[in-house]
């Protein structure tokens, strides 16, 4: 039975089939309940089969966030399913890290997916807000950058996240805090936007609500992490933090911690770890504002100091109620608060703190604990903490206190010198109640012991920082000595004492840290300080000891042997010939006992050792190392930087020649030069003194020579003065003659020009009279012809009217004879047609004649205008040539004048040069006596200078004479050239004037011909018209004898007569136009005459200028011109 039922049962479904079925149902379902049921089924498979569920239902699930967000239950199931996909079961066969990347990529590919999650934050539903924050955290863990971009671009994305910090429900608030921590480490823009959403205020409120720093747990730690992300290297957020008053809240949180500790109420032991961790993290946040060299660091330091943060951090550092980690971090924070800020460094020296354990209430007066608890200066407290022996557990606090002391005088030379003098005074007096840096360094090893090697190491580091790159501090420290000379004790300098302690410690086998501390101090002290090097070399046995240690120490002592080699390299680099151990001897010791290769190898191994090479990455703290012994803290950061910067120089120091010393400039004084150079300069000085003594014997002979040269110079000066006066006289005479000739030429030219203008005026008046007479005759004849023609026309009209009246009477009388006369009329009609044709031919001929007259008139006008334009062009060219000749003449005249002035200037310069040279020779003669000690070379140079100047004077005189002669010759040649050019200009002007006269004559003849032609044309037209009128009269008489139809022909003849009258009027208008053309020609002739007058005046001016220049103008040319004018 059961088998039958089993056989009839449906086949079992696999998980994959079920997931596929649920996925297809989710995609196809239309009812909300069906979709929710499908999602619930998929949720049960999401932990074990995340890949299968995601491949089939991820996109429908994500779309459900947008479509079903109004239904709380459905959204909750969807978010739970998606969260299960991000955190599958560890035993799942499909579990893989790639699933989270795949899911995150699917979410971040579309902006709408992240926006849908952010929209869920707007609801007040607990699970919607919680799960959406958790889901965004998972997505951000896989794809942080893309998630940040989506949130940044989403509407109100960041404000929604920050507002979740104010949710009263702790799970939602904590998830928002974790999400913001995950999103803010890298993006500066994201950090700014979160900060400006009032995130600082929300975080501080959250810290205070969670028990502040004392009682806060993981939530406070997360708040501190978020603050660190927002403030790390973000200048904008730091400024916003400072300006919004958050610094006061920092001080308040620290104050609350200190007050709770001072209250004496015992805190539960389980809270101490959280408290110390919170305080440590809070101090780290303060240090984020105090980056070395930061732009905002000075402002941040001032803000923390003014708001009392420094005081609270000091209280926490010296309260002795916190762990060593908190104390060391507080001291490091104090160092950052004052480092590089001079006003705060000066104020810090006046601060006081409580030192010791605070006594318990009710303790008996005079209790030892109460006596130890006292208020002392902060620097005393730091020195006690740094230099007093202590257990290895307090090493981190001691190192931090050492950093605080270094920050106190860092970059402040005044405080540095003050601290050094205070240490020296305390060491000399021996009454210091606090540890003294010098006392610790100068204490003999047998009295010191080896229990706390870091005491000497820290004293060496502090002294190194006091002296490093400070010449003043080094000089002050070198004045410290040990021993009383008056008591017979040996006086030992500070450097020698430290070297002695170093050598003794090496020989005793002291801890390596003590030896390295001494070596660090000596390297920084002796570098670029030759006086300190000489002090070091005053104890010669120390060099041998160091060389022996370098040779016999094995490879485990790389740091010791390497640093000893560095010290020897510094000593040799800055030693000198006058050192207690000369430079050559020191070089010989290094080469013979150590060798060049070993020297370089030791320094190279030291540089490559992990303690030096990896110093920046190795932790310089205890960090639990004390369980296996002392921590590996050997060097100071500044010393490591010093070694790395000067590594190349130290390795090359062995190759520097012993005779060449290194030049060092200290306080503006250069020290260290080559001694060989000094010796050579001394020998050269002696040679020069001997040569100067020899020069004294030669001085008398040179003075005699100078006197002779002065006599010769006077003679040459007198002769040159005479020649100059002669040249000046000649020049004056030439200039006067030239001016006279120019004036005569101007007068003659003016006279000739006036005569020419007069002649041209007479000619123009004669031509004007002729034209006026001709025009009057022409007008009179035209008037007579017009009157005669009008009378003839009137008579003809009268005859026509009489003929018409007679014709009408004849028609009345001979009406009966019409039939007989038809044949006669027909014949007359044929005759009339012939007459009509003949008349048409005559009219056409008359029109052709009129057109021919018009064309002839146009041609004559064109020819006349062309001739006038040619005449204008010739006049313009003549004017340009005259102007060019005038300009050329003026330029040549200016050249002559400039030549004369240049001659005068050259003569004046020669005279001034002679006087200057005489004064220079005189001053040179006077200075020769006073400069006997200046050396032979200078005297030889002066003598050569005198001789060269004498020669130059002679050559300049000769050149002046030659130049004067050349100038006279040039003047003569220029006068000749001017004469020839004036002759050429004269001939050219004469030819041009002749051309103008011929042109004028041709124009006059053309004008006469035009007048004659116009008169003949008018007469011909009049004769033609009169002949035609007589023919018409004859034809009218013949028409009187004809029949009545001849009346039409008579009318046509009347029309023809009217056309003839029109033609006559046209001929009159043409005659008038010719008269106007004649008048235009008359005006152009007048303009030409004016131009001729201007040319004549210019010609007379040129002649006058030629005469002024001394040129002769022949009278024959004037006579020829007068004859030509008479002929005209």
Automatic annotation (TrEMBL):
Residues 906-974, 993-1086, 1100-1128 are annotated as: Disordered. It holds the Pfam family Uso1_p115_C. The keyword Coiled coil applies. Residues 341-654 form the Vesicle tethering protein Uso1/P115-like head domain. GO terms for cellular component: endoplasmic reticulum; ER to Golgi transport vesicle membrane; Golgi membrane; Golgi stack. Keywords: Coiled coil, Golgi apparatus. Residues 1008-1052, 1059-1078, 1100-1110 have a biased composition (Basic and acidic residues). Its main location: Golgi. It is found in: Golgi apparatus. Residues 1113-1128 have a biased composition (Acidic residues). It comes from the Eukaryota. Gene3D superfamilies: 1.10.287.1490, Leucine-rich Repeat Variant. SUPFAM superfamilies: ARM repeat. Residues 986-1128 form the Uso1/p115-like vesicle tethering protein C-terminal domain. Residues 915-932, 945-957, 997-1007 have a biased composition (Polar residues). One of its GO terms (biological process) is endoplasmic reticulum to Golgi vesicle-mediated transport. Transmembrane segments: none annotated. This is Intracellular protein transport protein. The lineage of its organism: Eukaryota, Fungi, Dikarya, Ascomycota, Pezizomycotina.
């Amino acid at each position: 039975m059961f088998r039958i039922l089993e056989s009839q049962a449906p086949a079992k479904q696999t998980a994959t089939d079920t997931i596929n079925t649920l996925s297809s149902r989710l995609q196809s379902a239309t009812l909300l309940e069906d979709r929710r049921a499908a999602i619930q089924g998929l949720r049960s498979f999401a932990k074990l089969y995340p890949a299968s569920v995601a491949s089939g239902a991820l996109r429908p699930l994500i779309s459900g966030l947008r479509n079903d967000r109004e239904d709380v239950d459905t959204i909750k199931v969807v978010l739970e399913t998606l969260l299960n996909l991000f955190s599958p079961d560890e035993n799942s066969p499909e579990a893989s890290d790639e699933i989270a990347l795949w899911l995150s990529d699917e979410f971040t590919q579309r902006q709408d997916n992240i926006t849908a999650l952010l929209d869920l934050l707007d609801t007040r539903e607990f699970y919607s807000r919680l799960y959406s924050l958790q889901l965004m955290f998972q997505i951000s863990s896989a794809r942080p950058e893309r998630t940040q971009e989506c949130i940044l671009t989403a509407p109100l994305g960041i404000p929604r996240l920050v507002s979740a910090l104010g949710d009263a429900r702790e799970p939602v608030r904590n998830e928002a805090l974790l999400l913001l921590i995950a999103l803010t480490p890298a993006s500066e823009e994201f950090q700014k936007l979160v900060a400006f959403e009032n995130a600082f205020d929300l975080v501080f409120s959250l810290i205070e609500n969670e028990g502040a720093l004392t009682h806060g747990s993981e939530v406070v730690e997360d708040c501190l992490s978020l603050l660190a992300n927002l403030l790390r290297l973000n200048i904008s957020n730091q400024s916003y933090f400072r300006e919004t008053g958050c610094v006061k809240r920092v001080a308040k949180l620290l104050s609350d911690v200190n007050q709770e500790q001072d209250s004496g109420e015992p805190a539960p032991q389980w809270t101490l770890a959280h408290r110390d961790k919170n305080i440590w993290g809070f101090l780290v946040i303060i240090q984020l504002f105090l980056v070395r060299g930061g732009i905002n660091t000075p402002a941040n330091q001032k803000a923390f100091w003014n708001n009392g943060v420094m005081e609270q951090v000091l209280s926490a550092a010296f309260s002795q109620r916190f762990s060593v980690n908190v104390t060391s971090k507080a001291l490091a924070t104090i160092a950052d608060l004052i480092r590089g800020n001079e006003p705060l460094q000066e104020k810090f020296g006046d601060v006081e703190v409580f030192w010791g354990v605070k006594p318990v209430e009710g303790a008996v007066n005079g209790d030892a604990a109460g006596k130890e608890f006292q208020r002392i200066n902060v620097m005393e407290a730091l020195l006690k903490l740094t230099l007093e022996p202590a257990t290895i557990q307090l090493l981190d606090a001691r190192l931090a206190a050492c950093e605080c002391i270094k920050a106190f005088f860092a970059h402040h030379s005044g405080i540095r010198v003050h601290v050094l003098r205070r240490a020296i005074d305390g060491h000399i007096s021996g009454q210091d109640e606090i540890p003294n840096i010098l006392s610790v360094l100068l204490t003999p090893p047998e009295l010191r012991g080896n229990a706390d090697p870091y005491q000497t190491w820290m004293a060496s580091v502090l002294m190194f920082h006091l002296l490093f790159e400070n010449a003043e501090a080094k000089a002050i420290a070198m004045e410290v000595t040990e021993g009383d000379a008056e008591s017979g004790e040996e006086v030992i300098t500070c450097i020698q004492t430290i070297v002695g302690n170093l050598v003794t410690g090496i020989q005793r086998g002291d801890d390596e840290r003590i030896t390295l501390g001494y070596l660090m101090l000596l390297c920084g002290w002796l570098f670029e300080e030759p006086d300190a090097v000489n002090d070091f070399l005053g104890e010669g046995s120390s060099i041998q000891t160091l060389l022996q240690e370098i040779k016999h120490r094995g490879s485990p002592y790389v740091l010791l042997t390497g640093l000893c080699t560095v010290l020897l390299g510094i000593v040799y680099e800055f030693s000198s010939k006058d050192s207690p151990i000369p430079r050559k001897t020191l070089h010989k010791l290094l080469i013979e006992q150590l060798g060049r290769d070993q020297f370089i190898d030791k320094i190279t191994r030291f540089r490559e050792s992990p303690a030096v090479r990896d110093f920046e990455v190795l932790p310089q703290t205890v960090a639990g190392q004390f369980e296996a012994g002392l921590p590996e803290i050997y060097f100071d950061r500044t010393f490591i930087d010093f070694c790395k910067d000067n590594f190349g120089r130290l390795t090359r120091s062995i190759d520097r020649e012993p005779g060449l010393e290194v030049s060092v400039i200290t306080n503006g004084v250069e020290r260290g030069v080559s001694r060989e150079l000094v010796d050579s300069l001394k020998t050269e000085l002696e040679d020069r003194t001997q040569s100067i003594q020899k020069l004294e014997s030669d001085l008398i002979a040179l003075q005699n020579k100078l006197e002779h040269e002065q006599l010769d110079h006077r003679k040459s000066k007198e002769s040159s003065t005479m020649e100059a006066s002669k040249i000046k006289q000649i020049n004056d005479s030439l200039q006067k003659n030239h001016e006279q000739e120019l004036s005569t030429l101007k007068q003659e030219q003016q006279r000739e020009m006036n005569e020419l203008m007069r002649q041209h005026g007479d000619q123009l008046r004669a031509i004007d009279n002729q034209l006026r007479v001709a025009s009057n005759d022409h007008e009179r004849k035209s008037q007579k012809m017009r009157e005669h023609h009008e009378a003839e026309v009137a008579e003809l009209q009268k005859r026509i009217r009489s003929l018409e009246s007679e014709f009408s009477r004849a028609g009345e009388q001979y009406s009966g004879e019409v039939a007989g006369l038809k044949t006669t009329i027909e014949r007359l009609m044929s005759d009339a047609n012939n007459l009509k044709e003949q008349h048409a031919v005559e009219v056409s001929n008359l029109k052709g004649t009129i057109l021919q007259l018009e064309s002839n008139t146009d041609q004559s006008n064109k020819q006349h205008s062309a001739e006038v334009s040619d005449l204008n062009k010739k006049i313009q060219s003549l004017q340009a040539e005259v102007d060019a000749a005038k300009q050329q003449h003026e330029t040549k005249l200016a050249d002559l004048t400039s030549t004369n002035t240049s001659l005068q200037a050259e003569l004046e310069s020669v005279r001034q040069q002679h006087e200057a040279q005489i004064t220079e020779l005189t001053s040179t003669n006077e200075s020769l006596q006073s400069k006997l000690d200046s050396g032979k070379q200078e005297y030889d140079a002066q003598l050569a200078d005198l001789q060269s100047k004498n020669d130059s004077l002679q050559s300049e005189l000769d050149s002046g004479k030659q130049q004067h002669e050349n100038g006279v010759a040039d003047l003569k040649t220029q006068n000749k050239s001017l004469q020839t050019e004036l002759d050429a200009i004269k001939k050219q002007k004469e030819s041009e004037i002749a051309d103008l006269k011929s042109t004028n004559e041709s124009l006059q003849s053309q004008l006469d011909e035009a007048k004659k032609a116009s008169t003949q044309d008018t007469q011909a037209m009049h004769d033609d018209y009169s002949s035609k009128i007589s023919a018409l009269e004859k034809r009218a008489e013949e028409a009187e004898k004809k029949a009545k139809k001849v009346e039409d022909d008579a009318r046509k003849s009347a029309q023809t007569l009217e056309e003839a009258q029109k033609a006559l009027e046209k001929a009159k208008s043409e005659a008038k136009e010719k008269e106007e053309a004649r008048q235009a020609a008359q005006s152009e002739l007048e303009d030409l005459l004016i131009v001729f007058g201007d040319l004549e005046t210019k010609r007379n001016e040129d002649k006058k200028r030629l005469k002024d220049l001394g040129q002769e103008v022949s009278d024959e040319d004037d006579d020829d011109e007068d004859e030509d004018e008479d002929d005209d």
